[in-house]
Design brief:
Elements (H helix, E strand, L loop, with lengths): L1 E5 L11 H13 L3 E5 L13 E4 L2 E4 L1 H10 L11 H24 L5 H8 L5 H22 L6 H19 L12 H14 L6 H7 L2 H13 L4
Parallel strand pairs: 1-2
Antiparallel strand pairs: 1-3, 3-4
Helix pairs in contact: 1-2, 1-7, 3-6, 3-7, 7-9
């Protein structure tokens, strides 16, 4: 049996991390036997991050590597999709751009940060939690300024994410999923990010933008309900 090492559930999501949620959906879609093991310390796993899976042949880290491993075992996440180039572009948009908007909504928002601190890091003794997590937050926000998105205001970030959201809605059209009427690989990335945005502990312009868009919010709920672990 495969063991998925994942961040814990929270804010109504299977995991705090959309990448961990994606990994769960991949395992479900692959039809393999798996179980979850929660961890809040990614340092001992490959790339010092989660998700990771423990298999008979070793530990595999990163959701993309988990996908590749499952595909080697026979999983097909694309089905009849022929336009895989477009699907790949949506995956990259979600994971390399939308994700950082979610991170900034949580770690960069002074109203939301205390909620994140107390939920993400509850295992750290209370008298150490503020100094330790304060250092982590400072380092993460510095990294996002280097990346670029962290230099913008919340209003400017909303302007930046708008074309992504419009592209998702346009791609969906009258279809249930991004690549047609059958769920496929891009949905596991894109819907996971939308679900994470909707699960903001407090409303933000980004979370409200998604929540108030029936096409986006219904799509996220459709994928989430379809892929709930048995």
């Amino acid at each position: 049996m495969i063991t998925l090492i994942t961040y814990q559930a929270g804010f109504g999501q299977l995991s705090f991390s959309p990448f961990c949620v994606k990994a769960m959906w991949l395992l479900q879609a692959a039809g393999v036997d798996w179980q979850r093991e929660d961890s809040n310390d990614p340092r001992k796993f490959p790339y010092a991050k989660l998700p990771a899976i423990r298999t008979p042949s070793g530990i595999i880290g990163d959701s993309h590597n988990i996908q590749a491993n499952l595909e080697k075992q026979g999983a097909d996440f694309w089905g009849d999709v022929t336009d895989r180039a477009t699907g790949h572009a949506f995956i990259r948009m979600a994971e390399e751009h939308m994700y950082f908007h979610v991170v900034l909504d949580r770690w960069g928002n002074d109203d939301i940060w205390p909620i994140i601190r107390e939920n993400y890091f509850a295992e750290i003794p209370a008298f150490l939690r503020r100094p330790i997590t304060g250092s982590l937050r400072k380092a993460l926000l510095k990294g996002l300024k280097t990346q670029g998105l962290g230099r913008f205001s919340q209003a400017e970030r909303l302007q930046r994410i708008e074309p992504d959201l419009a592209a998702i809605a346009a791609r969906l059209g009258d279809h249930a999923y991004l690549m047609g009427d059958e769920i496929s690989l891009p949905d596991y990335s894109v819907a996971a990010m939308l679900c994470a945005a909707l699960a903001s502990p407090l409303p933000t312009p980004f979370s409200e933008r998604v929540a108030n868009d029936d096409v986006l919010s219904n799509y996220a709920a459709r994928v989430e309900n379809r892929m709930k672990p048995l």
